[in-house]
Amino acid sequence: MALITDERGGVLVDAGHSPGHAREIRGALVAAGLPEPRWLVYTHHHWDHVWGACAWPGVEIVGHVAGEAPLRAEAARPWSHRYLREQVRAEPRLGPSFRARALAMDSWDDFAVLPPTRTFTDELELPTGVRLRHVGGRHAPDSTVVLVPDSAVMLLGDCFYPPPVHLRQDGDGPDLALVHRLLDDGYQWYVSSHADPMTLDEARAAVEG
User: Residue 28's pLDDT is what?
Assistant: First the structure.
C-alpha cells in the first residue's frame, strides 16, 4: 500500500488485505494528520490488494478493465470461514491463498468485495498528476503500475511476480524482462508490493545481473 497526497487530494494505492487492515491504515493516517484519500487505485484484483476496500468510504475506486469481471465474480461468492474450508477441500491448491484469507479476516460482518467504480484500458492520469499504466503480465492480466512523476517513484504492485501458487507451473519465476521494460531514467525509485524499495541502479543490477 502507498498514499500519495498533496493539496489536490490523496491517492491510495491498494486497499489492504482486509477491512481490519484498512482500518489500521486509516488510523495511522489520522494520527499523522493526513487527509482521507479521494481515490483508491487497484494495482490488480487479487484479494490481498482489494479486500480492504469496503473500509474506505467515499473513495472513487479505479482499476484496469480486465479486473472488473473477476472482482464481480469474487463479490458474488458467499465468503466465510466455512466457505474457505470447503473450497480448499475441493481444490487443495487453493490452500495457501485461502488459508491466508481466513487468517486476515476476524469478522465477515459488512464485508464486501468491491469492483472498481472507474475503469481504464491503457493509461489514465488522475487530477493529482499520478499516472496509471496497464502492464499486464503473468501474475494478473490487469496488473497496473502507478507513476508518481513529482517524486520520481514507480509503484510496481505485483506485476513481475510469478502467477499465484494455484496457477503456477514448473519454471514460472519473476518476469524480470517486464521490469527491464519499465526502467526509466525519470524514475529513481521502484517499489513492489512485497519487497523493499529499490533505486534505479539497484533495479537495473537486479534485472541485468
Answer: 95
